[in-house]
Design brief:
heterodimer; A: alpha+beta; Alpha-Beta Plaits; 4-stranded antiparallel β-sheet; 2 helices; about 20% helix; elongated; B: mainly alpha; Na+/H+ antiporter like fold; 16 helices; about 80% helix; about 0% strand; globular
Chain lengths: ~100, ~325
């Protein structure tokens, strides 16, 4: 089966910034993304957990999107500009997909 | 009822005892947790119940000049208190301007849960209150956030390309404000007759569900204690206890000038003395993301909330009774 090389962009971000992030992705014509809840973790600010939280202030989410390698910089730049003030991280890795025309 | 009876009655009420249970469970590292979705559902229920109660009371009493004046006084107080809190924090602690402003916003805004427990305290003392205090609570949520933004606007220019309009939209329409104001309006329109069929859910179950919510608050506050040593310096912890008292001392004469009943005065003082931990923390993550959430959340939920619960509320009721007496 023929596979197509793409870039997988993974953004872990504090939950209050999620709407801004997804709006940015849509503005950048990213064809699709998936939002995953993060349950608990540890970072520079110490450990955190979503258990019992009433406010979104201490919740994190993970957003994953697959893009064409040619568009990587065009997409990561604006995302970084949005995320840099918030708690979060962006990572980019290689990914292989079957239906390459969709990304 | 004497001040000591009030304080003891408050400390031994199921609401406070469940908070203490949550606190103990978290400190003892029990695996007891309340799922996030349940905690959020409980918070929405509480705000709906409070909003409806306030709206129905206004439907009974009607619109008065005192109502408008009290709402105006609440808005001014919410906007002004962060400036005072900021000045105190910058004088007594080493918090950066952004962290001090974020903390200050919490102390200008209100805690709907402290308000709910305040209503429960009034219920035990058989004291009525002016229903429009719920509207005052809703109005007091956001001016403090705007005050904090004003405090830091010169020192920290925005770099994320977001307009003030976008930011205001996100802050003013945050879920807790919408559900509190919305339920208040629903209660106002429906009136006592409309409330009757839904009273089994929103009135009869209120105290029980408040206990469940306070158990969760105790768990979250207990977990906050573990990191308090790292996040909070002694002057900041002292601020978390002193600021509610300062706010109460400012709000008490205003409540007297407004001519509020003892119950109404107690809730007005409670609103001023409480610090937010639902609406403002999320707003601060959007508006001032550089501020350290561990500082303001731990201080608000781990220091000020337990203080208000155990000591503040009976104290505010005693002050209100003396003022009105």
């Amino acid at each position: 089966m023929q596979m197509h090389l793409k870039k997988r962009i993974e953004i872990v971000l504090e939950a209050p910034g999620l709407r801004r992030l997804t709006e940015t992705l849509e503005r950048l014509n990213v064809s699709g993304y998936t939002v995953l809840p993060a349950i608990a973790g540890n970072g520079r600010g110490g450990p955190w957990s979503e258990a019992g939280q009433v406010s979104d202030a201490e919740r994190m989410v993970c957003v994953i999107c697959i893009v064409d390698p040619a568009r990587e910089e065009e997409i990561v730049g604006p995302i970084f500009n949005l995320v840099k003030r918030h708690i979060g991280l962006i990572s980019v890795s290689d990914a292989q997909v079957i239906r390459g025309e969709r990304f | 009822m004497s001040a000591i009876d009030l304080a003891l009655g408050n400390l031994l009420s199921p609401v406070v005892l469940f908070f203490a249970l949550g606190l103990f469970a978290a400190i003892a590292r029990s695996d007891l947790t309340i799922p996030e979705a349940v905690a959020k559902g409980l918070a929405i229920y509480l705000m709906m119940a409070i909003g409806l109660k306030g709206g129905v009371e206004v439907a009974k009493q009607g619109l008065t000049a005192k109502l408008v004046l009290t709402i105006g006084a609440g808005a001014v107080l919410s906007f002004a208190l962060p400036f005072l809190a900021y000045a105190i924090l910058r004088t007594v602690s080493r918090l950066s301007p952004v962290n001090a402003a974020a903390v200050a916003a919490h102390y200008g805004s209100i805690s709907a849960v402290t308000l709910a427990v305040g209503i429960e305290v009034l219920g035990r003392a058989n004291l009525p209150f002016e229903g429009y205090l719920i509207a005052v609570a809703a109005v007091m949520e956001t001016p403090a956030i705007l005050a904090a933004l004003l405090i830091v606007s010169r020192s920290t220019p925005r770099e994320d390309g977001l307009s003030g309009k976008e930011l205001f939209h996100e802050i003013a329409l945050n879920g807790s404000v919408v559900v509190l104001v919305g339920s208040f309006i629903v209660g106002w329109i429906a009136g006592p007759a409309g409330m009757k069929p839904i009273a089994p859910l929103f009135t009869d179950l209120f105290r029980g569900i408040l206990c469940l919510f306070l158990l969760d608050m105790g768990l979250v506050a207990g977990r906050g204690f573990a990191r308090a040593r790292k996040a909070l310096s002694p002057p900041v912890i002292l601020f978390g206890i002193a600021m509610p008292l300062i706010s109460a001392a400012i709000a008490a004469p205003i409540a007297a000038l407004l001519g509020l009943s003892p119950g109404g005065a107690m809730l007005f003082i409670t609103l001023a003395a409480s610090s937010s931990y639902i609406a403002v923390p999320a707003a601060m993550r959007l508006a001032l993301p550089e501020a350290d959430a561990a500082i303001y959340l731990t201080l608000s939920l781990g220091v000020t909330f337990p203080f208000n619960l155990a000591i503040g509320l009976p104290l505010y009721l005693t002050i209100a009774q003396h003022l009105a007496g």
